[in-house]
Amino acid sequence: MTMEITAGFDSDYEKAAAIERYFFESGYSYDAAGTHAEANLDILHFVFDSQSGTCGHYATAMTLMARSIGLNARYVEGFTSTEVNEDGRYVIRARNSHAFVQVHIPFYGWVTFDPTVPGGEDSSGGGAFANILELSFMIFLGFSLLILIGLAGYLLYTRVIMEKLFRRKAAKISGRKGIILIYAKVLKLARKKLDMDNVSSAKLAKAITEKYGLDIAKITTYFERTFYGNEHLSIEEKNEALEIYKQLHSKMHTNQSRNTNHEPSESKC
User: Sheet holding 109-113: strands in order across?
Assistant: First the structure.
């Protein structure tokens, strides 16, 4: 039965809330007179037959139902009160005793649920306290989501700014320094996107061409000519290499790749 009640819900919180709602939406009543007190230990009788009981019945039933589907649930007894004396202190009376259910929600902690339907003195008002906890839980989730979105936005913004600063620097410096900087950036991208490290420039160029369909031979050639041959590299050549890098960066970050091993399938009639 509990599997049917929680069908369609993924999180532990949603499943626990669905079990709690079940008692309010299925015609259960509060046994104010204690008519079913003799059936305190017969929770099956309460759930399937009488559908009338005290807070102890409701809390016990929900705890067992939650555990039956793998939720970490516990039965809790305490007090609820809305009565305040002249000094502003809450007044707790024996009739304010109440039974609740707590379910442990991953990354949040113990959340209180109150499955008892309204009607008796020890009723907390049909899940009112649990509704407060539900509200606080949703607020917590909302703030957590905002923090995650903010962090993701900050990281993205930082990456974009750093890339702009790199391109600006590469465009202003000399040919030799520029091509060394560009080649180092290409190597960094290769390590990240292609899992390549300590490879020759020829292998690097071949791998990038096969993966992204872009010829970066000019970057590797200009780098080898300048770094190893100590030859002069013009600003125009350096800027040409920078434009090729920009194309590579764009392709790598938009997952534009081509499959060179694709073979056309035979047509079937």
Answer: 73-79, 97-105, 109-113
pLDDT of res. 214: 85
pLDDT for residue 41: 58
Question: How far, in Å, CA of 121 to CA of 46, rounded?
Answer: 19
Domains along the sequence of the chain with CATH: 2-145 (3.10.620), 173-253 (no CATH)
Distance CA 78, CA 55 (A): 11
**Residue 28 and residue 43 in contact, taking contact as beta carbons nearer than 8 Å:** no
Which residues of the chain fall short of a pLDDT of 50?
Answer: 39, 120-126, 256-269
pLDDT tens column, 123-163: 444 455 555 556 666 677 777 778 888 888 877 778 888 88
Kindly state the DSSP code that residue 127 receives in the 8-state scheme.
S
* CA separation for the pair 152, 42 (Å, rounded): 52
**Secondary structure of 183-250 in HEC code, one letter for each residue:** HHHHHHHHHHHCCCCCCCHHHHHHHHHHHHCCCCHHHHHHHHHHHCCCCCCCHHHHHHHHHHHHHHHH
| 105-114 contacts, C-beta under 8 A, 24 or more apart | 105/11, 105/12, 105/13, 105/16, 105/137, 106/12, 108/13, 108/137, 108/140, 110/74, 111/13, 111/16, 111/137, 112/76, 113/16, 113/17, 113/19, 113/20, 113/62, 114/20
Q: Which residue has the tokens 């902690």?
A: 109
pLDDT number for residue 93 = 81
Question: Mutual orientation of helices 175-193 and 235-253 as an angle, nearest 10°?
Answer: 20
Query: What's the alpha-carbon Rg for the chain, to the nearest Å?
Result: 34
Closest CA to 30 of 47, 46, 48, 52: 52
Q: What is the pLDDT of residue 106?
A: 85
